[in-house]
Structure formats: C-alpha cells, structure tokens
C-alpha cells in the first residue's frame, strides 16, 4: 500500500496487527486448573462461549498443554453454530497455519463469514488481507468496501486505515478532507494510531491549517497510550519548541520512552543528546550504546555517528576498521570514491582490512533484510 512518510496504518509489516483483539484479550480472566473441568463440561454440552474459551486455552497452553489441533477442533464446534468470533479465529489459524497447513483462501472464507455476521474485527482483518494481497489476489475495491463498512459502524482501526487510503490516494482519488474526517473519528475514540495520524495532519498542515499546538495535543494523547511514534514526535516538538515550550530535558524523556520500546529513530536521537549533553548529562559511553542499537537496526544517521565515535575513540575504543564499516553502511554504498570521510578512513587501512569490512557489510545487509511479522493473537469472547 502506498503511504505517506508519516501516517501509519493499523498493520504490522505485510501482515496485520489485530489492534482490537489485543485490547480485548485483557477482558478474559485467567483460567485456573480448578475451573477447567467445569468449563470443559460446558463446552462438551454445546456452549459456544465455553468452546471458544477452551480453544483459547489450548491455543495458548493455559492450564492445559498447548495443542493447536485441539484448539482448531473447539473453534470449529463453535463456528458450526454460527459464532462469528470462532469463525474469525479459525481464519487466523488457517492464515498462520496453526493446527493445519496455511491456507489464506480458507482463512478468507472464515473472515468473510464472520464479517457478514457483523463481526467488525473480521471485516477489518479481511480488508487488510485484500489490500495487501497476502496469499490471495489483491482486491483494493473489496478492501475499501470492508474498511468503509467497519468504519461506518464505529470500528476505530478501520476508521484510521480508511483515513490512510484517502490521504494517500491508494485505489481512490486523494481526498485529504475525507482523511481528516476518518482520522478524527478514530482519534476521538481513543485509537492511538488514529491520534498520532491526526496529530501528524496538524503537524504538516495537510487537510487543515498547520497547527503545532493541535499536533502536540494529539501526539500527547497517543504517547500516553504508549504509541512510540507519538512519543518520538512529542519529543521532537519539545526539542524544537514547537507547540510546546522548548525543553530538551522533557524531549529526552519522551525519546527514552520510545527508545525503550525499540523505536530506532528515538534511539538515534537519544544517543545524540547524550553525546552533546543536551537535556541529559553528557556521557559518551551511553551515547555509544544507544547509537549502536539504532545502527544495528539500520538507522543511517546512527551508523554515521557511530562511525565518528569509532574514528575518534569516544565511548568506544578507537577503531578505524569499525569506523570504516559503519561509515560504509551509512552511505549505502560499497566503494569509497564518493565520500571524503570514507576515503580518509580507507587511506588508513590495508586492502585486506577494506576487503574484510566490505565483506562484513554485505553479510550485515543480508542478515538484516526485513522479515514479515506474524499475525497477532486470537480474538477472545469472554464468558457471560
């Protein structure tokens, strides 16, 4: 899917992030060994909710030994009685290949069936698969239709993704007013990604007059929910003094929250703050640690700065070979001809050292190719 460089869809890599299912998972009380026999009897007597709870126990290994085949069998019993949550979970299992061989076609059958019964999560899930074409032919028209159905019924992740489609003009005419409408609906329901995207629209002045204060407001709401990109954005606003008073100490606090979640850009920014002593006590060793984390994940600014640290021996041992390696990675090239600093480093190394560094760079790039993320947890259906 074509996206702008800052708006974020409710999707993880080429697979999907089941936002609502994760949130709902917390509504299920832990299952104890004492409760298991009673639950199993209810499931055996045909209670669909009990069957779903038994299936979830088998899928997670809660109280019983993890067994995806058994989980699938119990979901199927509930699905045969028309339970849409069970149908949706069968779709997840089919898509991931849990309890049987992976089958995106079978998965879509279950998602469509659950969606037709009004289960909004299933409509959303099916929409993402149609949009990305994961394992099935891409169908942007059907994706848009399902997103719109779920969005109009108030499903906030679908509202966010519909906003992305209109903002990017993917499969439809670009319409920033429609994008603002759906981002606002999503954000007003407390969807963190929707809040971030709405703040981003205000930050960039797309669909609305540019407004730093409004951007900071929505970033703050998303950041408070733990959204790492919103934490990064809010930190940047405090660093620059846009929409909030300039405060590098507070900026460092938000960068740290995002960095602790693995946000690469935040790790890189935090490293620079420790290197310069802005908002935090100057510490070359801590700076090197954060920059190393970001560099290992592919952040080119961090790679360039880490190369500088190795070149100067700041926070790390002076090491020209490592300086050359990280500088080379930061440039995305394998030859030193077009970069003066790289040429200077190369002049301090032997041909064997350069060849070894280039070999390591090639190996690094192969080992750091992105891998698709897995589908998220199964949807629960709490006992009533």
Explain what you see.
- The structure is a single chain.
- Helix content is 64%, strand content 0%.
- The chain has 384 residues and is mainly α.
- It has a domain of 107 residues: Alpha Horseshoe (Serine Threonine Protein Phosphatase 5, Tetratricopeptide repeat).
- The N terminus is likely disordered.
Strand content: under 5%
Structural class: mainly alpha
Low-confidence region ranges: 1-5, 12-26, 371-375
State the helical fraction: 55-70%
Write the layout of secondary structure elements.
Elements (H helix, E strand, L loop, with lengths): L18 H7 L10 H9 L3 H13 L7 H12 L4 H13 L7 H13 L3 H13 L7 H13 L3 H13 L7 H13 L3 H13 L7 H13 L3 H13 L7 H13 L3 H13 L7 H13 L3 H13 L7 H12 L8 H7 L4 H17 L17
Helix pairs in contact: 2-3, 3-4, 4-5, 5-6, 6-7, 7-8, 8-9, 9-10, 10-11, 11-12, 12-13, 13-14, 14-15, 15-16, 16-17, 17-18, 18-19, 18-20
């Amino acid at each position: 899917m074509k996206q702008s460089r800052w708006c974020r869809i409710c999707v993880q890599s080429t697979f999907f992030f089941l936002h609502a299912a994760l949130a709902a998972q917390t509504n299920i009380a832990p299952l104890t060994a004492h409760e298991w026999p009673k639950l199993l009897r209810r499931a055996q007597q045909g209670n669909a909710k009990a069957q779903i709870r038994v299936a979830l126990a088998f899928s997670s290994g809660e109280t019983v030994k993890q067994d995806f085949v058994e989980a699938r069998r119990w979901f199927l019993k509930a699905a045969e009685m028309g339970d849409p949550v069970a149908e949706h979970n069968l779709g997840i299992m089919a898509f991931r290949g849990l309890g049987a061989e992976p089958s995106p076609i079978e998965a879509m059958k279950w998602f469509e069936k659950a969606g037709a019964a009004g289960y909004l999560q299933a409509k959303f899930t099916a929409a993402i698969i149609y949009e990305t074409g994961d394992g099935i032919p891409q169908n942007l028209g059907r994706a848009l239709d399902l997103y719109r159905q779920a969005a109009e019924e108030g499903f906030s992740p679908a509202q966010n993704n519909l906003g992305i489609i209109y903002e990017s003009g993917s499969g439809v005419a670009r319409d920033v007013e429609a994008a603002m409408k759906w981002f606002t609906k999503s954000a007003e329901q407390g969807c963190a990604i929707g809040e971030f995207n709405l703040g981003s629209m205000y930050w960039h002045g797309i669909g609305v007059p540019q407004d730093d204060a409004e951007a900071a407001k929505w970033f703050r709401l998303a950041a408070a929910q733990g959204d790492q990109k919103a934490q990064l954005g809010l930190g940047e606003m405090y660093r620059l003094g846009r929409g909030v008073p300039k405060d590098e100490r507070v900026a460092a606090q938000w960068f740290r929250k995002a960095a602790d979640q693995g946000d690469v850009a935040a790790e890189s920014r935090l490293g620079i703050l420790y290197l310069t002593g802005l908002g935090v006590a100057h510490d070359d060793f801590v700076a090197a640690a954060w920059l190393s984390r970001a560099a290992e994940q592919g952040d080119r600014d961090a790679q360039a700065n880490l190369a500088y640290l190795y070149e100067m021996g700041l926070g790390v041992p002076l090491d020209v070979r490592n300086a050359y390696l990280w500088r080379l990675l930061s440039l995305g090239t394998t030859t030193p001809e077009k970069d003066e600093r790289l040429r200077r480093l190369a002049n301090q190394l032997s041909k064997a050292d350069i060849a070894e560094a280039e070999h390591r760079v090639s190996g690094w790039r192969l080992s750091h190719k992105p891998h698709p993320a897995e589908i998220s947890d199964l949807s629960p259906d709490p006992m009533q």
